[in-house]
Amino acid sequence: MRRMVAETRLRPADLILPAFVREGITQPVPIQAMPGVVQHTRDTLRKAAVEAVEAGVSGIMLFGVPEDAKKDAAGTVGTDPDGILQVAIRDVKAEVGDELVIMSDVCLDEYTDHGHCGVLDADGRVDNDATLERYAEMAQVQADAGVHVVGPSGMMDGQVGVIRDALDTIGKEDVSILAYTAKYSSAFYGPFREAVGSSLKGDRKTYQQDPANVRESLRELALDLEEGADMVMVKPAGPYLDVLAKVAESVDVPVAAYQISGEYSMVEAAAEKGWIDRDKAILETLTGIRRAGAQMILTYWATEVARNLSADR
Ligand code: PBG
Q: What spacing in Å lies between the alpha carbon of 104 and ligand 1's midpoint?
């Protein structure tokens, strides 16, 4: 009876798998702070994409991790057609074609030696408008590599509009934009910084949002939609369910939420200590995010949960 009358359902198609691919490795490298998650080789990424398809996951969000020596102040490899992310997009596309919605991160932090999401001005501050030019070019090389959806995650003002123009200019009108609309400056990104080998010192408070604010997110939302966002996202997910509910209430575009690294690690760590029931806790977090209004959820558990959901029918 509970199953019959449940108000919220979770299906494999609701899930999107974020995945890391690292240049120059021959074996996947485990991420210490995210047990069960690895930095993929090009080969194991292809396998992970196939597994995701088989489990019924609907999308994959790719993050590239370049060789350390290739990082520079401008994040040059982010716009190199042969940079690791572009190569990975082509690999996944060749492997699974259109069976999976292929998404990619448009952000410079994985490629800059200072670890910021943008380029810096003479005073060492992130230069919003100079960064937009880099994002425009990044989106274009990713689109050329065959990506279906770009996900600008850097929270620069005007990024969605600039990327939309840049894509249209090269005839990529059909590449969609998943806007990181409300991305908070969060302590829960900690494990991700290990995952991408981030060089960041300091914080992202000049461009990511204050956890205390919600009206500000609705303003960000209005701007993103005006600039041409096809889908919008709230991130992190769990600590921001109220933001998610408000965003979902006020738009008619698909709404996503990103259950981030720290949310993953907390459950894994508590489960490892035997303090919570891992599988039940995972499902509860995802159900809560769905209930709050996310149609799509980016989660590192995507493939595992999708498999279990299918088996559970
Ligand atoms: C920036 C980016 C971050 C995440 C996704 N894209 C990190 C940050 O803003 O510092 C975090 C994802 C996670 O923690 O799982 N490219």
A: 12
